[in-house]
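Reposting from the mailing list since nobody answered there.

I have sequence plus structure tokens for a pair of proteins and want to know whether others read the tokens the same way I do. The first protein:
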Amino acid sequence: MRTSALVIGFAAAMGLSACGGGTLNNIKAGQVGPDEFAILPTRSLSMPPDLAVLPAPTPGGANITDPNPQGDAVAALGGSPERLADRGVGAADQALVAQAARTGSDPAIRQQLAVEDAQWRARNGRRPLERIAGTPVYQRAYAPMALDGVAEQRRWQRAGAITSTAPAPAAR
């Protein structure tokens, strides 16, 4: 009797331990198909007041019936959805952009970084036990590259850099 109770208890414990899942940080783990909540309905068709002033069609461009959830949210909160349009770099940021681009920029930097990141993850991928358990390894893989904000701030302050928005270092 005790043996069968022990076996049932062990089986129940093993069954419940499998319920952990580990999908909190692994977003793609539980997805098997499309997300039905990601589908946005289009706006209803309407006749414009004057057909002569319609803009020229732009292949691949936006349509007036396309959903614009960000613009709708801004309008619902009393803002102007036109402010969401990309108007380039603002006048206040021109000097910053000029300083950052002084040595030129690579237009394919995102693709290059994606390739380098894929190579890094291939070299520092999951260990066999992590593969079996399906645990995420993001934190461990990128730990050597993490920046300690407080230590970096102190390093810049010791170097004499002006850090006006940084709090004063704590007294020791």
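The second protein, same order (residues first, tokens after):
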Amino acid sequence: MGGTDDPSNLVEVTIEQHAELHFALYLEHGNWQDWLAANGLAGLVSHEETARQATSLANKGRIPWNKGKNTGPNLVVSEANKRRVWSEESKEKCKEAGRKNKGNKRPDLREYAKKHGAENAARRKRDSNGRFT
């Protein structure tokens, strides 16, 4: 563990031996990185699973970046709306717009409702050509 890449400090090993050496280091020092390396090299765990576990173990005990932050609706907009003063004219315009939009909101149903009555507009069926009957 550690050391330089000097040729006298390097040892050539097979993949199986490399896995065994990582396992020995895990037993000696208890580093989770050696445990994951040993399992990955031995083929016990896929590369994707090893990467997932490494990310999970690396973040254990850390406080999430968004802990304690407000994640609800946009607070700046809601605060601005609380302070907004609506004139009587604006209130009346909103009420009138709400009254106009009640009923048939789909333009394709307006003509059908005129011909067949508003109560039947919601029960329309399509024919084999995709047209409303």
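Reply #1 (J.P.):
I read it the same way you do. The chain has seven helices and no strands.
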